[in-house]
Design goal:
3-stranded antiparallel β-sheet, alpha+beta
Length: 178
Amino acid sequence: MIKAFRDTWELGIHSYLTYLRDRLILARNLLSESGSIFVQISDENLHHVRELMDEIFGNENFVCLIAFRKTGGSTKETLSTTVDFIVWYSKDISKIKFRPLFTEKVVGGVGSQEYKFVQMGNGYRRRLSEDEISGTSPLPDGSRVFTTASVVSDGARANTSVPFEFNGFTFDIPGNKN
């Protein structure tokens, strides 16, 4: 039995791929010449979906494979799957339209208030000065501005938070991060 998008496919992978193929052909026919299609899939059937989309859209129209984090927890004895994928194909890659998702942040500008640290070319890190943040003093050559982020878990979750052992000590996920 194949699980896909929380559905079960009792007739196996072939019934799922036939179902998906019919919908992808219809989607391709409905797309404008500059259109794109995005399909979300787990790693279990990613290779089958890529083969199917290569057949329908042409491998030359493959744009990229986007991985995104679906969880931060680990629940397996080995490496846990913590990402799903979005497969991006265009109807005609020579006519594709793309708008960048991100805009460049400028120190002291909109959206960069949390970037308060700088790493020098030699690896030394320090807090940015007020003059560097305001732009009245230039950043040192080869330096990179950065921010810090918490590495603390958001807390325990049923069936996803498991104790782990490190250097002979067992660590458990607390109920909350406070």
